[in-house]
Specification:
The longest helix has 27 residues. The protein contains six helices and six strands. Helices cover 47% and strands 19% of the residues.
Length: 170
């Protein structure tokens, strides 16, 4: 009986240490989303300073004021996605937007992902969102000739977004 109790105590102690090690290692590990962000590769294209997120002809770029002003002065149709890194809907929508820009063959549109109310939002992005009366992350806007011709805060599929962009390009 004493031998069984001793073995049981040893198993409980070893098991408890194992559980503590697992909990401690999970607490100190980097979450997958952070790993993806920190290992993100930078891709640039001629004429723009921002990191290109998607596209080979029509580019979807991380917003910065200089690139936005260049797109406006070049007369491009502009797609804006107000994105928050903590927003589940924004993260679900991102692959749809990337796929649209990867498949677009027109160089007459430029897309920008604008950080909105998250840990990466800078002062320019705050002012830009305020100027466009953005009140909600995951807002998407298409501008043509300086006018908003499409605006939604709803989830849009790749097909829906492509249809709206094609309308704007007509």
């Amino acid at each position: 009986m004493n031998k069984a109790i001793t073995i049981l105590i040893i198993v409980l102690i070893v098991g408890g240490i194992g559980v503590l090690l697992v909990l401690y290692s999970n607490r100190n590990s980097v979450p997958q989303e952070k790993q993806a962000t920190s290992s993100k590769t930078e891709r640039k294209v001629e004429g723009y300073q921002g990191n290109v997120l998607a596209g080979n002809t029509a580019y979807y770029i991380e917003y910065n004021r200089a690139d936005y002003e260049k797109a406006v002065s070049d007369g491009r149709v502009i797609f804006l996605d107000f994105y928050a890194n903590w927003c589940p809907l924004c993260r679900t929508q991102a692959p749809e937007i990337n796929a649209v820009f990867d498949n677009l063959e027109s160089d007459k549109i430029v897309g920008f992902r604008v950080n909105y109310n998250d840990s990466e939002t800078d002062q320019d992005e705050k002012e830009f969102a305020k100027a466009l009366a953005i009140t909600y992350q995951d807002t998407k806007i298409i501008l043509k000739d300086g006018r908003a011709i499409f605006r939604t805060s709803e989830f849009v599929t790749e097909e829906q977004l492509l249809a709206e962009i094609n309308k704007a390009l007509e």
